[in-house]
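Consider this one:
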Amino acid sequence: MEPAEILAAAGKISQIYAVTDGSGFDLRKCNPAEKDGFANIKKADAPEHLEDGVGVLADLQEKLYAQDHWSILLIFQAMDAAGKDGVIKHVMSGINPQGCAVHSFKAPSAEELDHDFMWRTTRQLPARGMIGIFNRSYYEEVLVVRVHPEILAAQKIPKDLLGKDLFETRYEDIRRFESYLSHNGTVVRKFFLNVSKDEQRRRFLERIDTPEKHWKFAARDVAERQHWDGYMDAYQAMIRNTASKSAPWYVIPADNKWYTRIAVAGVIIDTLASLGLHYPKVAGKRLAELQSARASLLAEKA
Protein backbone atom coordinates (compact mmCIF):
# COMPACT_ATOMS: atom_id res chain seq x y z
CA MET A 1 0.00 0.00 0.00
CA GLU A 2 1.10 3.54 -0.73
CA PRO A 3 1.55 5.95 2.23
CA ALA A 4 -1.58 7.90 1.27
CA GLU A 5 -3.64 4.69 1.26
CA ILE A 6 -2.21 3.67 4.62
CA LEU A 7 -3.09 7.04 6.17
CA ALA A 8 -6.64 6.81 4.82
CA ALA A 9 -7.06 3.26 6.14
CA ALA A 10 -5.61 4.31 9.50
CA GLY A 11 -8.15 7.09 9.82
CA LYS A 12 -10.97 4.67 9.06
CA ILE A 13 -9.84 2.11 11.61
CA SER A 14 -9.54 4.77 14.30
CA GLN A 15 -13.12 5.86 13.77
CA ILE A 16 -14.47 2.31 13.87
CA TYR A 17 -12.99 1.31 17.22
CA ALA A 18 -12.70 4.60 19.13
CA VAL A 19 -14.77 5.15 22.27
CA THR A 20 -14.63 8.84 23.18
CA ASP A 21 -17.75 8.90 25.33
CA GLY A 22 -18.21 5.86 27.50
CA SER A 23 -21.76 6.53 28.63
CA GLY A 24 -23.89 3.59 27.55
CA PHE A 25 -20.93 1.59 26.25
CA ASP A 26 -21.84 -2.11 26.07
CA LEU A 27 -18.89 -4.49 25.78
CA ARG A 28 -21.21 -7.38 24.92
CA LYS A 29 -21.97 -5.73 21.58
CA CYS A 30 -18.28 -5.79 20.57
CA ASN A 31 -17.43 -8.90 18.54
CA PRO A 32 -13.90 -10.17 19.36
CA ALA A 33 -13.71 -11.99 16.00
CA GLU A 34 -14.87 -9.28 13.58
CA LYS A 35 -12.57 -7.92 10.88
CA ASP A 36 -14.70 -5.16 9.38
CA GLY A 37 -11.99 -2.50 9.45
CA PHE A 38 -9.91 -4.24 6.79
CA ALA A 39 -12.47 -6.33 4.95
CA ASN A 40 -10.30 -6.49 1.81
CA ILE A 41 -7.21 -7.83 3.57
CA LYS A 42 -6.67 -11.56 3.89
CA LYS A 43 -4.62 -13.22 6.62
CA ALA A 44 -1.92 -14.28 4.15
CA ASP A 45 -1.45 -10.68 3.03
CA ALA A 46 -1.48 -9.17 6.52
CA PRO A 47 2.30 -9.32 7.17
CA GLU A 48 3.01 -7.30 4.03
CA HIS A 49 0.39 -4.69 4.92
CA LEU A 50 1.72 -4.50 8.47
CA GLU A 51 5.25 -3.99 7.15
CA ASP A 52 4.03 -1.14 4.95
CA GLY A 53 2.25 0.41 7.91
CA VAL A 54 5.29 0.10 10.16
CA GLY A 55 7.30 1.94 7.52
CA VAL A 56 4.90 4.89 7.66
CA LEU A 57 4.90 4.69 11.46
CA ALA A 58 8.71 4.80 11.55
CA ASP A 59 8.74 7.95 9.43
CA LEU A 60 6.22 9.66 11.69
CA GLN A 61 8.09 8.58 14.80
CA GLU A 62 11.33 10.07 13.50
CA LYS A 63 9.57 13.41 13.04
CA LEU A 64 8.08 13.15 16.53
CA TYR A 65 11.54 12.55 17.95
CA ALA A 66 13.17 15.34 15.94
CA GLN A 67 10.47 17.91 16.66
CA ASP A 68 10.66 17.14 20.40
CA HIS A 69 7.33 18.78 21.30
CA TRP A 70 4.77 16.01 21.73
CA SER A 71 4.99 12.73 23.61
CA ILE A 72 2.80 9.65 23.08
CA LEU A 73 1.51 7.30 25.77
CA LEU A 74 0.06 4.00 24.53
CA ILE A 75 -1.71 1.90 27.16
CA PHE A 76 -2.58 -1.77 26.58
CA GLN A 77 -5.06 -3.64 28.75
CA ALA A 78 -6.50 -7.08 28.13
CA MET A 79 -7.19 -10.49 29.53
CA ASP A 80 -4.27 -12.93 29.56
CA ALA A 81 -3.33 -14.35 26.12
CA ALA A 82 -5.12 -11.55 24.29
CA GLY A 83 -1.91 -10.68 22.45
CA LYS A 84 -0.54 -7.55 24.13
CA ASP A 85 3.08 -8.68 23.90
CA GLY A 86 2.70 -9.73 20.27
CA VAL A 87 1.12 -6.43 19.28
CA ILE A 88 3.90 -4.43 20.92
CA LYS A 89 6.57 -6.65 19.32
CA HIS A 90 5.20 -6.66 15.78
CA VAL A 91 3.82 -3.13 15.54
CA MET A 92 6.72 -1.30 17.16
CA SER A 93 9.53 -3.48 15.79
CA GLY A 94 10.38 -1.13 12.92
CA ILE A 95 10.75 2.11 14.81
CA ASN A 96 13.90 3.65 16.28
CA PRO A 97 14.36 2.20 19.79
CA GLN A 98 15.93 5.48 20.92
CA GLY A 99 12.52 7.08 20.68
CA CYS A 100 10.45 4.38 22.35
CA ALA A 101 10.28 2.79 25.81
CA VAL A 102 8.14 -0.18 26.90
CA HIS A 103 7.17 -0.70 30.53
CA SER A 104 5.38 -3.81 31.82
CA PHE A 105 3.60 -3.52 35.13
CA LYS A 106 3.08 -6.73 37.05
CA ALA A 107 2.04 -7.20 40.69
CA PRO A 108 3.25 -4.17 42.69
CA SER A 109 6.41 -4.47 44.80
CA ALA A 110 6.61 -3.61 48.49
CA GLU A 111 8.07 -0.21 47.61
CA GLU A 112 5.27 0.49 45.12
CA LEU A 113 2.63 -0.46 47.68
CA ASP A 114 4.02 2.22 49.98
CA HIS A 115 2.93 4.89 47.47
CA ASP A 116 -0.25 6.01 45.75
CA PHE A 117 -1.62 3.73 43.04
CA MET A 118 -0.28 5.88 40.19
CA TRP A 119 3.21 6.38 41.57
CA ARG A 120 4.92 3.52 39.74
CA THR A 121 3.45 4.43 36.35
CA THR A 122 3.92 8.19 36.67
CA ARG A 123 7.68 7.65 37.02
CA GLN A 124 7.74 6.04 33.57
CA LEU A 125 5.83 8.65 31.59
CA PRO A 126 7.42 9.43 28.20
CA ALA A 127 9.54 12.55 27.71
CA ARG A 128 8.87 14.91 24.82
CA GLY A 129 9.66 13.32 21.49
CA MET A 130 9.19 9.82 22.92
CA ILE A 131 6.61 7.06 22.58
CA GLY A 132 5.91 5.37 25.91
CA ILE A 133 4.15 2.00 26.00
CA PHE A 134 2.49 0.65 29.12
CA ASN A 135 1.85 -3.10 29.03
CA ARG A 136 -0.83 -2.97 31.72
CA SER A 137 -0.97 0.23 33.75
CA TYR A 138 -2.69 2.11 36.55
CA TYR A 139 -5.91 0.67 35.14
CA GLU A 140 -5.12 -2.56 36.97
CA GLU A 141 -6.32 -0.70 40.05
CA VAL A 142 -9.89 -0.62 38.70
CA LEU A 143 -9.71 -4.06 37.10
CA VAL A 144 -7.98 -6.83 39.06
CA VAL A 145 -8.46 -4.92 42.31
CA ARG A 146 -12.17 -4.59 41.59
CA VAL A 147 -12.47 -8.31 40.85
CA HIS A 148 -10.30 -9.20 43.87
CA PRO A 149 -11.02 -6.51 46.49
CA GLU A 150 -8.94 -8.42 49.03
CA ILE A 151 -5.90 -6.93 47.28
CA LEU A 152 -6.75 -3.61 48.92
CA ALA A 153 -5.60 -4.98 52.26
CA ALA A 154 -1.99 -5.01 51.02
CA GLN A 155 -2.20 -1.40 49.86
CA LYS A 156 -2.34 -0.05 53.40
CA ILE A 157 -4.96 2.54 52.48
CA PRO A 158 -6.55 4.26 55.52
CA LYS A 159 -9.84 2.55 56.39
CA ASP A 160 -11.74 5.82 56.16
CA LEU A 161 -10.93 5.93 52.43
CA LEU A 162 -12.10 2.39 51.67
CA GLY A 163 -15.76 3.18 51.16
CA LYS A 164 -18.10 2.05 48.42
CA ASP A 165 -17.05 5.07 46.34
CA LEU A 166 -13.43 3.96 46.09
CA PHE A 167 -13.54 2.99 42.42
CA GLU A 168 -15.62 6.01 41.44
CA THR A 169 -12.92 8.13 43.06
CA ARG A 170 -10.21 6.28 41.15
CA TYR A 171 -12.05 6.79 37.87
CA GLU A 172 -12.20 10.50 38.61
CA ASP A 173 -8.50 10.59 39.51
CA ILE A 174 -7.64 8.85 36.23
CA ARG A 175 -9.80 11.18 34.14
CA ARG A 176 -8.18 14.23 35.69
CA PHE A 177 -4.69 12.76 35.37
CA GLU A 178 -5.14 11.99 31.68
CA SER A 179 -6.62 15.43 31.09
CA TYR A 180 -3.56 16.92 32.77
CA LEU A 181 -1.28 14.90 30.50
CA SER A 182 -3.11 16.06 27.37
CA HIS A 183 -2.84 19.69 28.52
CA ASN A 184 0.92 19.23 28.72
CA GLY A 185 1.50 17.68 25.32
CA THR A 186 1.26 13.97 26.10
CA VAL A 187 -1.18 12.27 23.73
CA VAL A 188 -2.87 9.34 25.47
CA ARG A 189 -4.27 6.41 23.50
CA LYS A 190 -5.66 3.37 25.28
CA PHE A 191 -6.24 -0.08 23.80
CA PHE A 192 -8.45 -2.84 25.13
CA LEU A 193 -7.67 -6.02 23.20
CA ASN A 194 -11.00 -7.80 23.25
CA VAL A 195 -10.40 -11.56 23.18
CA SER A 196 -13.20 -14.11 23.63
CA LYS A 197 -13.23 -16.70 26.37
CA ASP A 198 -13.14 -19.53 23.82
CA GLU A 199 -10.13 -18.06 22.01
CA GLN A 200 -8.30 -17.54 25.30
CA ARG A 201 -8.90 -21.20 26.11
CA ARG A 202 -7.50 -22.24 22.72
CA ARG A 203 -4.36 -20.13 23.25
CA PHE A 204 -3.83 -21.49 26.75
CA LEU A 205 -4.02 -25.05 25.40
CA GLU A 206 -1.54 -24.13 22.66
CA ARG A 207 0.88 -22.84 25.28
CA ILE A 208 0.54 -26.05 27.29
CA ASP A 209 0.99 -28.26 24.21
CA THR A 210 3.97 -26.34 22.80
CA PRO A 211 7.22 -26.71 24.82
CA GLU A 212 8.61 -23.45 23.42
CA LYS A 213 5.62 -21.64 24.89
CA HIS A 214 5.60 -23.20 28.36
CA TRP A 215 7.36 -20.13 29.78
CA LYS A 216 4.30 -18.04 28.88
CA PHE A 217 1.91 -20.19 30.89
CA ALA A 218 0.94 -19.79 34.54
CA ALA A 219 -1.66 -21.96 36.26
CA ARG A 220 -3.16 -18.90 37.94
CA ASP A 221 -4.18 -17.61 34.51
CA VAL A 222 -6.56 -20.55 34.14
CA ALA A 223 -7.88 -19.99 37.66
CA GLU A 224 -8.74 -16.40 36.71
CA ARG A 225 -11.11 -17.70 34.04
CA GLN A 226 -13.54 -18.40 36.88
CA HIS A 227 -13.86 -14.63 37.22
CA TRP A 228 -14.40 -13.94 33.51
CA ASP A 229 -17.78 -12.25 33.94
CA GLY A 230 -16.40 -10.11 36.76
CA TYR A 231 -13.54 -8.97 34.56
CA MET A 232 -15.88 -8.15 31.68
CA ASP A 233 -17.98 -6.04 34.03
CA ALA A 234 -14.82 -4.30 35.26
CA TYR A 235 -13.57 -3.59 31.71
CA GLN A 236 -16.95 -2.23 30.72
CA ALA A 237 -17.07 0.04 33.76
CA MET A 238 -13.48 1.15 33.08
CA ILE A 239 -14.30 2.21 29.53
CA ARG A 240 -17.60 3.81 30.49
CA ASN A 241 -15.93 5.92 33.16
CA THR A 242 -12.61 6.88 31.56
CA ALA A 243 -13.18 7.24 27.80
CA SER A 244 -12.81 10.82 26.59
CA LYS A 245 -12.05 12.75 23.42
CA SER A 246 -8.52 13.53 24.58
CA ALA A 247 -7.84 10.02 25.90
CA PRO A 248 -10.07 7.59 24.00
CA TRP A 249 -10.28 3.85 24.36
CA TYR A 250 -9.95 1.65 21.30
CA VAL A 251 -11.78 -1.65 21.69
CA ILE A 252 -9.85 -3.84 19.24
CA PRO A 253 -11.09 -7.32 18.23
CA ALA A 254 -8.40 -9.74 19.38
CA ASP A 255 -9.47 -13.24 18.29
CA ASN A 256 -7.40 -12.90 15.11
CA LYS A 257 -3.86 -11.81 15.95
CA TRP A 258 -3.02 -10.62 12.44
CA TYR A 259 -6.04 -8.34 12.42
CA THR A 260 -5.40 -7.02 15.91
CA ARG A 261 -1.88 -5.98 14.94
CA ILE A 262 -2.80 -4.06 11.80
CA ALA A 263 -5.73 -2.41 13.57
CA VAL A 264 -3.53 -1.18 16.44
CA ALA A 265 -0.91 -0.01 13.95
CA GLY A 266 -3.61 1.94 12.14
CA VAL A 267 -4.70 3.76 15.28
CA ILE A 268 -1.12 4.71 16.18
CA ILE A 269 -0.41 5.93 12.65
CA ASP A 270 -3.58 8.02 12.64
CA THR A 271 -2.69 9.48 16.02
CA LEU A 272 0.76 10.58 14.91
CA ALA A 273 -0.48 11.84 11.55
CA SER A 274 -3.03 14.07 13.32
CA LEU A 275 -0.25 16.03 15.07
CA GLY A 276 1.11 17.70 11.94
CA LEU A 277 4.63 16.51 12.66
CA HIS A 278 7.56 17.83 10.66
CA TYR A 279 11.32 18.04 10.86
CA PRO A 280 12.57 21.22 12.59
CA LYS A 281 13.46 24.01 10.17
CA VAL A 282 16.89 25.55 10.65
CA ALA A 283 17.32 29.31 10.28
CA GLY A 284 19.42 32.24 11.47
CA LYS A 285 22.61 31.50 13.37
CA ARG A 286 22.12 27.74 13.18
CA LEU A 287 21.75 27.86 9.38
CA ALA A 288 24.85 30.03 9.12
CA GLU A 289 26.76 27.43 11.14
CA LEU A 290 25.67 24.68 8.77
CA GLN A 291 26.70 26.68 5.73
CA SER A 292 30.06 27.45 7.30
CA ALA A 293 30.63 23.79 8.13
CA ARG A 294 29.74 22.81 4.57
CA ALA A 295 32.20 25.31 3.14
CA SER A 296 34.90 24.02 5.47
CA LEU A 297 34.31 20.42 4.42
CA LEU A 298 34.37 21.30 0.72
CA ALA A 299 37.64 23.17 1.20
CA GLU A 300 39.37 20.11 2.64
CA LYS A 301 41.79 18.29 0.37
CA ALA A 302 40.63 14.85 -0.63
